[in-house]
Amino acid sequence: MSPRREKLTSPQTRIALARGNRPVQHLLPIPGPVDTEAARRLFHAQRRAAARTVALLSVLLFGMSGAFAAFPVLGEIRPGGVPLSWLLLMVAVYPLLFVLALWHVRSAERIEERAEREHPKPGHGERER
């Protein structure tokens, strides 16, 4: 028979498990009045940016597939015994996807910053004394 397994926990974990209570759920504050037209403009601007990003993503992925179909020699060239098309998929695509993601996040942040400058929220943008 194998030895009995022991469950090890830290003292803090044992105390928390023994109490069995959870932290108090704090209620979120009631939101103030919303400028629905400004929110709608912001939503549309961010949706346009997302559509642009998806279009670029499609061009990148389908363009690479199209390049492999148009230039079958990319599969025949084998640096180090690995087809060049595989190397392009493994090495080139991921940095491009990362750059595309960074570009999208930054453009979404710029859209939000522009909307905040045009329609500042009450209490924001004022210096505290």
Structural class: mainly alpha
Distance between the termini: 72 Å
Calculate the mean pLDDT score and round it: 82
Portion in strands: under 5%
Summarize the helix and strand pattern as letters.
Answer: HHHH
Largest sheet: none
**Backbone CA Rg:** 27 Å
Multimeric state: single chain
- List low-confidence stretches: 125-129
Shape estimate: flat
The proportion of residues forming helix, as a percent range, comes to 55-70%
Number of strands: 0
Number of helices: 4
Organism: Nocardiopsis sinuspersici
Protein name: DUF485 domain-containing protein
Keywords: Membrane, Transmembrane, Transmembrane helix
Transmembrane segments: 49-74, 86-105
Can you offer a commentary on this structure?
It comes from Nocardiopsis sinuspersici. The chain crosses the membrane at residues 49-74, 86-105. With 129 residues, the protein is mainly α. It has a domain at 32-118. The chain has helices spanning 11-19, 36-70, 73-76, 84-118. Helix 2 (36-70) packs antiparallel against helix 4 (84-118). The protein is flat, with a radius of gyration of 27 Å. The termini are far apart.
